[in-house]
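Milestone M4 deliverable, item 7.
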Amino acid sequence: MTLSDIEAQLADLREDAQTAIASADSLDGLEQLRVSYLGKKGQLSKILGGMGKLDPSDRPRIGASANEVKESIQSALDDKRTQLQAAQIQARLVAETLDVTLPGVVRPQGRQHPLNSTLDRMVDIFVGLGYTVATGPEMETDYYNFEALNTPPDHPARDMQDTFYLPDGNLLRTHTSSVQIRYMEQHDPPIRIVAPGRCYRRDTVDATHSATFHQLEILAIDKGLTFTDLKGTIKEFLRQIFGETDIRFRASYFPFTEPSAEVDVRWKGKWLEVMGCGMVDPNVLKAVGYDPEVYTGFAAGLGIERFAMILHQIDDIRRVYASDLRFLRQF
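Output delivered:
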């Protein structure tokens, strides 16, 4: 093989390599071309294998030409690799890019139910006055719902017409006063609790009554508590709920308090009954092991639905249970 033959082969190799590299469309294909042209067993190595037949004086010339071809091919490989990597990154960016101009999936904003917002507001007031939240079961025994609360056996509240009795002899609680008994059995005075929860009675459902409703009751037991303490607590609570307004206490009767009273507020020019209250009956204190000669206490209970209807100007109690979004979106 002559010098001119080898030079011609090197020139052809450079041209073929540059054409093939320019046409490569993947990094894997480009790597195969590198191995094919510049690898140990590649085409350049095969051409240089014929240098042994050349005159020694011609070998440096061929070596220099071979290095130029190798550098030219390597430069073409590097440039093409940079292009392919940039194209690969750009394609990935296009595939993974989010179009922020497209409309998103709109989720309706949730709102607090008027009953929950009213309950939370009431609880916050009493917690601010030093009360602790207490809860109890909605399915109760006759003892906790009636007997321990000094309710006589012939009291109308025990009738089937008023109470939901269960087959096992238990019942659905008619008030959250049962929570007071359970709490007093487990805690020694002084105590101050607020007991919110769901209650059940056999009421005819209409604009102001429901068979399922919610109550909130407070109980305070300590040495030296008087009716004046009760009045001061209720007045402060109602002031925070309704603002400055006239309040009156009317004598009433409840089995578990003595004396007892009902509380009215003047709302939009009319007297409106909002809760019942009284001093805890000594028999209730005895039922839980408290000495009525040492401790006194007061209690009060109210319907959360009534307050919610007043505060939110709701004309029908059934609206708060209907799950009507047109109604709920107002709050």
